[in-house]
């Protein structure tokens, strides 16, 4: 299985000078490549939006080729996004169905969000709840992810015989 570090190293070679810096976020289904474009002091939101649109159009074919190679190597879909100044835009994003079994109390929470117009469906309400937890517990989730990476590294080493 290819590691996050290997993906980042491979992309470093493939992306050239597109970005000032980039980060890779992975899960079991998807790899998201987020790159920072130079804003050259662009203070206007429309100017930054234009820079993002130009990048998207000019790199489309090459990004598709890189994504196909990475998808073959990892078995995961690839999403692309950029940041320019304070603006962020994700071009593609995989939507993955998640099967859940919820108790009535939990379903009532989702139904309340739908009835109140916060969400259009239970699925959207659940996504809203997940985003809310992610925003308010970001530090804790980060620590948890770091701990899981440590466990994965130890597991990869295996026992010393």
Report on this model:
- By secondary structure, the chain is α+β, with helices and mostly antiparallel strands.
- The protein folds into 2 domains: 1-96, GMP Synthetase, Chain A, domain 3 (2-Layer Sandwich), CATH 3.30.300; 97-161, no CATH class.
- It has helices at residues 4-15, 45-74, 104-115, 122-136, 138-157, and strands at residues 21-26, 30-37, 77-84, 87-90.
- The chain is globular, with a radius of gyration of 19 Å.
- The relative contact order is 0.10.
Characterize this entry briefly.
The chain has helices spanning 4-15, 45-74, 104-115, 122-136, 138-157, and strands at 21-26, 30-37, 77-84, 87-90. It has 161 residues and is of the alpha+beta class. The protein folds into two domains: 1-96, GMP Synthetase, Chain A, domain 3; 97-161, no CATH class.
